[in-house]
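Today's session is about reading a structure prediction critically. Students often jump straight to the picture, but the first step is always the sequence itself: look for stretches that repeat, for charged clusters, for runs of hydrophobic residues. Only then move on to the predicted structure, which in these notes is written as discrete structure tokens rather than atom positions. Here is the chain we will use throughout the hour.
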Amino acid sequence: MERQTELARLDDHLRDCLAGRSAVVVVTGAVASGKTELVHHFAARASRTGTRVLSAAASRAEREMPLGVMRQLFRHSRLAGARQRQVDELLDDSLRGSPLSAADIGDQLDARLPHQLGNVLLDLAAEEPLVIAVDDVHHADTASLRCLAYLVRRLRSARIMLLLTESPRIQVRHPEAYAELLHPSGIRRIRLAPLSRGGVRAVLEARLGEATAEQLATDCHRATGGVPLLVDALLDDNHGTDRPAGELVTGDAFDEAVLACLYRCEHRVLEIARAVAVAGGDIDPELVHQLLGIPPATATALSAATTAGLLDEHGLCSPEVTRAVLAGMVPEERAALHGRVAELLHHKGAPATTVAPHLVETTTVSQPWTVTVLLEAADQVLLDGDVERARRYLRTAERYCTNRPQRARVRAALARVEWRIDPATTIRHLPDLTEAAREGHLTGRQGLRLIHHLTWHGRVSEALDIIRHLKSTQARDDADLAAELFVARVWLSSFYPSLLPDLRRELGTTRRDRFTVARIRARLQGRATLSAVLTGDFEQDTVRAAEQVLLGRGSTNIDSGRPSPHCSHWSRPNASTPSTSGAGGSAGIRRPTGTRPRWPFWPPSVPRSRSGAATWRRRWN
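Below is the predicted structure for this chain, in token form.
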């Protein structure tokens, strides 16, 4: 227990009390900092010295109950029969027939009652030393505060130690009476700080053993901020569980402890904690102000003393606490807050990747910009290789689509993403995308990808139909698209020789346009280079050229003008896999054993052609 210094100070004050020198000691610290445990531990030690201990615990729920704290003290006083009846009569008479509230009774309390109850306590102290412990005194009712203040003013040389605990900056219900109690200058204060890493380690060691404690101490201290209640909760979650060695588990006990701490703080703290958790764990004072109407200065003035150490001017103390706060919210409330955060962030000009995670978690936003934001965010995370997140954003975008062109755009993007996970899954999108292409709702690049998907699934007639449609509607004003469509027909002709006559007829017309010829030659060169490397049929300089193609600097563009979705896979050096380039080739192109390339898109229903691209490339050189 990392409270030996504080216990030693309390022992010193107790010795003063036993010697006839009274003391008023206030233990202060954030909610859940271990004040109650410290007082209980000290009270047990004091009892073993022959000291009578009277204890009471004030609470927010009972702070309007007149004389509630005093009743608790005398209920635990073990008074003799006649004296106990006297005290009961005093307490009952003060309330009998009175319609006043607790605050009014405190203000209009008969002056004789504090005097009489105080004399009872002074008489007890004359018989034996007396420790009076009141936990969370800031929640005490007014009448009890008046009685305790009366006693403090008359302690003098009585053998009484008045031990109080408080949480600073928690709003006091009865500030005048509270100030009267704590006004004397002779009050000693003991401040409890959060546990250090060493203190957390000591607590863990007592329950989990030395080796495990050393493994978990750092993570536990980070996750809890050294709050003793949270440390104990983590012990409950990790004791006797099947967890990987050295891994900290957070479960129901931790979540409940976090919420208990926040509920014991001011209600505003709970509101801010929820807003910060939804927003990502870091405090944005302006965002909190717009969400909750709380002044930015208030949000940035938060301290560990006010918020149980869970929240400060920077935000929530750990991701584990953030998760617990989110788990404690009603789903509808959390979704609504995510929606408000998404709207505020968008209007502030936040990046799409910042706004999109909130749109995924809500159904309350219905704005024209939502689909655009989700599409942009999906593109960004896809460039980073996070395919699953891109798919999640696009599936959310489907919910927000309000018209057919928008839905077609989202479906095309979703098919592109799901192709990277499993090409077979794209078949469910093909009917809608084919219809959308015929209606003119897909761009040329989206149409090209649809052609690839249709070809892979063996739907050649539909692929040809889309080629003809794009050629007649979009390729006239887009030379790059015209070249891509011609190359697509080259590939189809390699698989289906019956298509060659139509391709040869078009060849004569196309040769007259030297710019189109140059574009087609470049694309065929790039595809032939990749095909040679991936099938093992290449020369020494071919690998370097293929690397340039994959990185988007060579003679072809794959997938919307960007490097191929598999570039990172095929061009990443991998020392554990033998290079396909041989001794004379580049070490950059490596082919994992047992895999087949997904480009070119060989349809599973037809044989692969290793020479088609090379054959057509030679015709254009």
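Discussion point for the tutorial: Residues 289 and 295 are 5 Å apart (CA to CA).
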